[in-house]
Design a protein that fits this description.
The chain is of the alpha/beta class. Helix content is 46%, strand content 13%. The chain is globular, with a radius of gyration of 20 Å. The structure holds 1,3-dihydroxyacetonephosphate and iron/sulfur cluster. Pathway: Cofactor biosynthesis; NAD(+) biosynthesis; quinolinate from iminoaspartate: step 1/1.
């Protein structure tokens, strides 16, 4: 168990971590990408960590894969690859470095390990979970199979390795409709996200039966509140993640994966937009779309926010926490993830 006080003390004794405005000047290229959301004095506190992490990354032959929900200081300061779950899974298959530091939640690090069993995969905080991944077990998958004999099981990547291993194929929010449509038979079982499954069912040719898990971040948004925001601000564009309730997705001008949402803002340049998702998304793209105003509210993912610059430095310093996947799950889970990547590339999604 990580003792935060001991961690801070050991890091302070090993690296120069004093806040520094001089360092901010030396890192202008990075600071210019976050200056809309981070005051210079705040960045002065992050800069020494960014310097230490980037140096250590080179020494350890490590690469940092970071999800779109990471804070701006991680996303712009230390990440080598940023993206949605599908992009990170594909990036994990192409990594040359010996060490992968996964800045995201545990199922994402497990996916990287599944695709790179010979590499060292580290997660800066192993308790960074996910309400969806926690909602379903391989025994639940077996029960669903018994209820719908012969129906293929499509599991969202937001699942444990054990659940992936019990599934026929994985999907992400970027390719779910296409993957479901490509399955044989009339009925497809989707786990664990009930709302994603209902959103997929609206667009798919298949009958979709599903597990009732949900994301604690996206389930909070309601269609009524979105209608209220629109009534106050008729020009407001609203774009949502498909983990939201179907009524919320219907109310939105666009629904897509986290990277799909980023691309939509960059391509459409709305005057004012509300990103119905995790808060860091708007902060991470603010600098690249200076003409766009981001409307609040947004919700924080408490699991994603467990990953901090300090814990990333600790992770590289101590080479921990190493992510492992039980041998019996490794091959079948890899087959389910690789099927998804292959199919997605064939279908061009
Ligand atoms: P994306 O695959 O769209 O990045 O979503 C992952 C996630 O956990 C969203 O809550
Ligand atoms: Fe899981 Fe929701 Fe957090 Fe994504 S935002 S990691 S789905 S809890």
């Amino acid at each position: 168990m990580l003792n935060l006080q001991d961690m801070s003390a050991e890091l302070a004794a090993s690296y120069d971590l004093e806040p520094s405005l001089t360092l901010v000047d030396e890192m202008r290229d990075i600071y210019e990408r976050v200056d809309r959301v981070l005051p210079e004095v705040e960045f002065a506190g992050y800069a020494p960590y960014i310097r230490a992490i980037n140096r250590l990354k080179a020494e350890r032959n490590a690469v940092i894969l970071a999800h779109n929900y990471m804070t701006p200081q991680i996303y712009h300061g230390v990440a080598d690859v940023v993206g949605d779950s599908l992009q990170l899974a594909i990036a994990a298959t192409k990594v040359d470095a010996e060490v992968i530091v996964q800045c995201g939640v545990h199922f994402m690090a497990e996916t990287s390990k599944i695709l790179n069993p010979q590499k060292t995969v580290l997660i800066p905080d192993a308790t960074a979970g996910c309400s969806l991944a926690a909602s379903v077990t391989s025994a639940d998958i077996a029960r669903m199979r018994a209820e719908y004999p012969g129906a293929p099981v499509v599991s969202y990547v937001n699942t444990t390795a054990a659940v992936k291993a019990a599934s026929d194929i994985c999907c992400t929010s970027a390719n779910a409709v296409q993957i479901v449509d490509a399955m044989e038979g009339d009925t497809v079982i989707m786990t664990p996200d009930g709302f994603l499954a209902q959103n997929v069912a609206r667009e798919s040719r298949k009958r979709v039966v599903y597990w009732q898990g949900s994301c604690i971040v996206h389930e909070q948004y309601t269609a009524a509140e979105l209608r209220e925001y629109r009534a106050h601000d008729p020009g407001l564009k609203i774009i949502a993640h498909p983990e939201c309730q179907p009524e919320v997705a219907e109310e939105a001008d666009y629904t897509g994966s986290t990277s799909g949402m980023i691309d939509w803002v960059r391509d459409n340049r709305p005057e004012k937009v509300m990103l119905v998702t995790e808060c860091s998304m708007a902060s991470n793209i603010a600098d690249s779309v200076p003409d766009v105003e981001f409307a609040k509210p947004c919700n924080l993912c408490p699991y994603m926010k467990k990953i901090t610059l300090e814990k990333i430095l600790w992770s590289l310093h101590r080479m921990g926490e190493e992510v492992t996947v039980p041998a019996e799950h490794l091959e079948p889970a890899r087959a389910a993830v690789e099927r998804m990547i292959d199919l997605s590339q064939r279908l061009n999604v």
